[in-house]
Fold protein-tyrosine-phosphatase.
Amino acid sequence: MMKWFTNLFKKNKKEVAVSEPLGPQITSDMHAHFLPNIDDGAQSLEESIDIIKGLVEMGYKNLVATPHVMSDFYKNTPEIILEKLALVQAEVEKQNIDVHLTAAAEYYLDEGFLKKLKSNEPLLTFGDNYILLETSFINSCFFIDEVIFLCISKGYKPVIAHPERYTYVYGNYNEIKRWKNLGALLQVNALSLAGYYSSKAKEIAQNLINDQLVDFIGSDCHKAKHLDWLKKVRTLSYYNKALGLPLQNNLIIKVPQK
């Protein structure tokens, strides 16, 4: 694994940024899984704090927890999520960590979410009513157009999480552009730029940056081990190039949880 990791960055020497950042560093992370024992992210309060400390050391000042919400697997509710947030917040204050925490969710586009949306159930958002959405990694969502339309009509700002990781768009890059044209915002995972998920995800992420389609860069940090990768990403030329886009990360408004 370490040999592969080393070779990855040897191969990508031409991508290492040697100049000053093209734009301001990202200080707000709107996609992370640091709430403990709630999804496939942090599995203990200790790991939650390790992740938070690591992100703070990298310069993040605002962190949004976005645990998965899936009807058949992660049956998280606003109450469950906010209870976990309070637990983590108490420990952060106890350890005097200088960071602002809020919680939203990463909603999986299934029939359960569509029902919630149509029935006006309370949904967790971040900043100025942004709502984070994800689809299957393999199969397209046949009602994604309806979701984008309903979200916008109800005052939400839909953000499609990590479109570069959806294998069903690998032969149809224009599908991502179509979501953008419908009014959705796009969030790329920082780790995609290092090839962490796959070479194809990296390629799509780079294309999205080249085409100036990226609205957010998220850590999507699930484990403390992701922190070393995130540090490496911040040296890459494509990350530097992304900083030159009108990213909305640092426009996230500090709003109290309802």
About this structure: Strands lie at 28-32, 62-65, 68-69, 100-103, 106-108, 130-134, 157-161, 185-189, 216-218. The mean pLDDT is 90.
